[in-house]
Structures are given as structure tokens and as C-alpha cells.
Amino acid sequence: MAEPLLKLDELAVHFTVGGALRGGTKILKAVDGVSLDVKPGECLGLVGESGCGKSTLALAIMGLIPPTHGGIALNGQAISGRDRMATARTVQMVFQDPYASLNPRQTVRRTLADPLRLHGVTNRSEVDQRVADMMAKVGLRPDHADRYPHEFSGGQRQRIGIARALILRPKLVICDEPVSALDVSIRAQILNLLEDMKRRYGLTLLFIAHDLAVVKAVSDRIAVMYLGRLCEVGPTEPLFARPAHPYTALLLEAIPVPDPTVKPAANLAVGEPPSPLDPPSGCRFRTRCPRADAICAAEVPELRELAAGQFAACHHPL
Predict the structure, then answer these.
(1) Backbone phi, psi, residue 4, to 5°
(2) Which of 29, 34, 33 is closest to 46 using CA atoms?
(3) Residues 235/240/245/249 CA torsion (nearest 10 deg)
(4) Which one, 17, 176, 222, 292, has least CB within 10 Å?
(5) Cα 77 versus chain centre, distance
(6) Half-sphere exposure (CA, 13 Å, Cβ side) for 179?
(7) Is 25 helix (H, G, I), strand (E, B) or coil?
(8) What is the 3-state secondary structure (H, E, C) of 266-277?
């Protein structure tokens, strides 16, 4: 079996919030002990409700937020925030908001050329050629390289963001909600572009989203997060057909069905999500789970394999 391209080992990212004027400090465990492998050449979808820790996990992998504890390894080599420049050629990121992620004072040419220059490509003709080639590959006109971001549509800006992520030819690209800020009519174009780039360059993708319909379309495997922890990981088709964790079933139940005659399924969860500042003991989903009992409050469930490649952290899996 091939060595994982990315390996997370009990990764945690905690923040101190509050202060003396707010009744004391508390620890927000945005990511709390996540262990996960991403295989070379696959697209791993990472899903969960807003605030579950998906984007924080991505920023920790990128070295933009220091982990509290745990390990991150690329190609079997442990990395840290101090290795940010060294790992930038291996890992790049496409951000959620194409309007906020581009510098409005920089032309497209400079946006794409700066990463090359930072990593030692200083020959101007080579830089210009690689910028033009990358713009063409993501569906932009190379003769528009001297335009500014405000002169492009939202979909075109996201193509610029994808070009910037790929200009250094990384092995892993983290896509953090790359289509959620775009019109529905544009989303399919960007998803098709990412799939084309994945095939062309042999990329590995970590695709973060809360829209399971989008994740199903692009992912080989899916990891489900809830309040900073993984609750299920498995191949896409089996996970959609036979979810093992009640929270995964809840997410699948919430996918809209474009048929007014189809009645929504009975809700599997009760109540509201708890505060991440004061999560429940044991299983963090237990306060909303109809299958919860005393052991769910007393013991944190570990991820265990229930079927081929399908893991769930649940004392009473479906």
C-alpha cells in the first residue's frame, strides 16, 4: 500500500477565548485529536456543519495556524509552521471567497508570478511563459494578465485562485469551500475545472464543503467532522448508501430532493448543536442522538472499522 501523501496524527488546534472582563478564559477546541490519511491521487471530501473545524484543520495543514499538539506529515516527513516555505511547493490552497482572496492592487500577472519568484524562478521570460500557460489551462485569456481582480467575474476570480494554487505544481491542493460563494450556474464549471486539473497534474485534493451533493460528485472518500472530531470516514458510495454514524445520516437526510412529492425523512437528531466552548462529555453528538445511552456520556468513541474501509466513532452505529 502506498505511503499516505498527508498524514494527521491526533492533530489538535485550541484557542483561548474570553478574558477577565468576560468572566474568565475558556479553551475552544476547534480541532481536537484528528487522525486522518490522504492517499496520493485521491480526492478526500471533508464535510460537516459550519463551525465544526474544517477550515481550521486546513489552515493548520497549510502552516497558517500553529497546532496545539499532534503531528502533520507530508510524504512521510513531519512538518511544522517553520517549514512553510519548504512545503509550499507540495501543498497549496484554493480559498472560499474569490473576492477576498485576491489582492485588489495586484494584476493577475503579479498574483501568479510572485509565488514563482519567491521559489527561485527569476528569469522573466520563463515567468511570463508559465503565467500565460497556466492562465490558458484554467480557461482564462493570457492577454488579460495585466488586468486587476475587479475586472473579472466571480467564477473568473476563482479560476485565478486555482491558477495561483497550481503555478508551483504542488502535489496536494486544499480546496476550502471553493464553490460556495459562486452562483449555481458557475459551480459546475469550477468543479469540472478542478477535476480536469486533478487528472492533468496527478493532484491529490482535500475538498472541504458542507454541501454533500457537491462532495459526492468529486470525492473518492469522505470524512465527516462534528465539533472538532471525526465521526465517520469511508468510501463515498458505501457511506452515502449505508451511513454508520447517526450524524452522517442526519447530514444525508438534509440533502434537498428535487421532487415535491417526496416527503422528507424523519429527523434523526433532536435539539440544537452544543457550544464548542462547552462540548458534551463522551460522544459529542450524544445530546442530539436518539440512540444515546449511559456509555455515550461516559466514554469517547474511537474510530473503528465497521466495513471495508468504512470507519465510525459511535458506540451504537446504524
Answers:
(1) -60, 140
(2) 34
(3) 160
(4) 17
(5) 21
(6) 22
(7) strand
(8) CCCCCCCCCCCC
Is the residue at 74 inside a domain? no
The whole-angstrom separation of Cα 156 and Cα 186 is 9
Alpha-carbon span 125 to 113, nearest angstrom: 11
N residues, the chain: 318
Q: Which three cell numbers stand for residue 232?
A: 465517520
Q: Which domain holds residue 301?
A: 229-318
Distance of alpha carbon 51 from alpha carbon 119, whole angstroms: 34
Is 254 a member of any domain? yes
Span 156-199, pLDDT tens digits: 999 999 999 999 999 999 999 988 878 888 889 999 999 999 99
pLDDT digits (tens, 9 = 90+) for 220-244: 999 999 999 999 999 999 999 999 9
Instruction: For residue 12, tell me if it sits in a domain.
Output: no
Instruction: Select from 284, 252, 285 the least CA-distant residue to 267.
Output: 252
Average pLDDT of the chain to the nearest whole number: 89
The reported pLDDT for the residue numbered 21 is 65
Number of domains in the chain: 1
Answer yes or no: is 46 within a domain. no
Which of 318, 231, 241 has the alpha carbon at shortest distance from 273?
Answer: 231
Query: Cell numbers at residue 45, please?
Result: 471530501
Q: Distances from the Cα of 59 to the Cαs of 95, 106, 158, 222, 302, in angstroms?
A: 10, 23, 19, 19, 25
d(CA 290, CA 272): 13
CB-based contacts of 39, cutoff 8 Å, min separation 6: 2, 4, 5, 204
